[in-house]
Amino acid sequence: MSYTIALNFEDGVTRFIGCKEGETVLDAAYRQKVNLPMDCSDGVCGTCKGHCEQGEFDMGDDYLEEALSDEEAAEGQVLTCQMVPSSDCVVQVPVASTLCKTAVGQVEGTVAMVESLSEDSIELAIDLDDGAELAFLPGQYIHIDVPGTREHRSYSFSSRPGASRTTFLIRNVPDGLMSGYLTERCKPGERLSLTGPMGSFYLREITRPVLMLAGGTGLAPFLSMLEQLAEKGCDQPVHLIYGVNKDDHLVKTDALDAFKDRLPTFTYATVVVDEASDHPRKGYVTHHMDAEVMHDGDVDVYLCGPPPMVDAVLKHFDREGIAPQSFHYEKFTPNQAPGEAA
């Protein structure tokens, strides 16, 4: 038996390691050449302290309270030198990846498909090389090198973790570096280099209703999240509000319809800003966040969209006195990684 442990570092890099049954996270990391912080490895100093955001584990009782207090343990703090997982886990490591002598992963792949979905968005599919390993948490992003340049652009996965074909929903930016490549030169069979995964915006364990708010190509990470939920199942209500500027900017609604069949607890609504639209729901996503989807605050909210949308939702929550149980958001600009913009 082996468990997958996602180590999320302070600089946004995520590294996945395998942990054998009965093995501590610290030992597993060192076995795979990830030097997590440590001084004693005996539960005495507290140097290896982190936070387990997701998963089951045993800490035993062979550590000092000076290293980890009962209050800290109750909040999910762990000592990686004592933490023995009994499931897949996500652990926050409060140092930069470079200090742990590990680096963000790099993989190569071949363009399988590039398609203009609307004037506003492009879908890119990449087949990873045989044997390439690219684990990520649904919602995270990756850097893609722009061929012929020394630049990269960052995009959230729209595909499920573990798939050999990765997909991305990319905003078509006028005169954009990657947009120009994809619309003018990119053809199936071309080679691309990817670096990642990265980002703190990802799907947590679901224990209550979920509200997803997507703006434009901010839909991408939610497609990845929904893929995982549809595969694993979810008994909590999941509602998505997907907002765009114009009618023809609505894309991937066929995929959303398919999720309704695969995930019975999932519903979604689309919203169009354009006042000239005949769409049944017009305005902004904040105009359509009624009491039913807010569950009296007993809800986990995920938000991904351009900065004005994120700011508008934050102001709406403040103005209405809304305090969801948890709130995770990512705002992006066309030339900036989602995680860097948050």
Provide structural commentary.
- This protein is globular.
- The protein has 342 residues and is α/β, with parallel strands linked by helices.
- It has eight helices and 18 strands.
- The chain has three domains: 99 residues, Ubiquitin-like (UB roll), CATH 3.10.20; 93 residues, Translation factors (Elongation Factor Tu (Ef-tu), domain 3); 132 residues, Nucleotide-binding domain of ferredoxin-NADP reductase (FNR) module (Rossmann fold, 3-Layer(aba) Sandwich).
- The C terminus is likely disordered.
- Strand 14, helix 4 and strand 15 form a beta-alpha-beta unit.
- The longest helix is centred in the C-terminal third of the chain and has 14 residues.
- It has a six-stranded antiparallel β-sheet, covered by helices on one side. A five-stranded mixed β-sheet has the order 2-1-7-3-5.
- The two termini are 37 Å apart.
- Its cofactor is [2Fe-2S] cluster.
- InterPro entries: 2Fe-2S_ferredoxin-like_sf (IPR036010), 2Fe-2S_ferredoxin-type (IPR001041), 2Fe2S_fd_BS (IPR006058), 4Fe4S_Fe-S-bd (IPR017896), BenC-like_FAD_NAD-bd (IPR047683), Beta-grasp_dom_sf (IPR012675), Cbr1-like_FAD-bd_dom (IPR008333), FAD-bd_FR_type (IPR017927).
- This is Benzoate 1,2-dioxygenase, ferredoxin reductase component.
Number of strands: 18
CATH superfamily of the largest domain: Nucleotide-binding domain of ferredoxin-NADP reductase (FNR) module
Rounded Rg = 21 Å
**Strand arrangement across the biggest beta sheet:** 11-10-13-8-9-12
Briefly note the structural class of the backbone.
alpha/beta
Order of helices and strands: EEHEEHEEEEEEEEHEEHEHEHEHEH
Q: Output mean pLDDT.
A: 93
Strand content: 25-35%
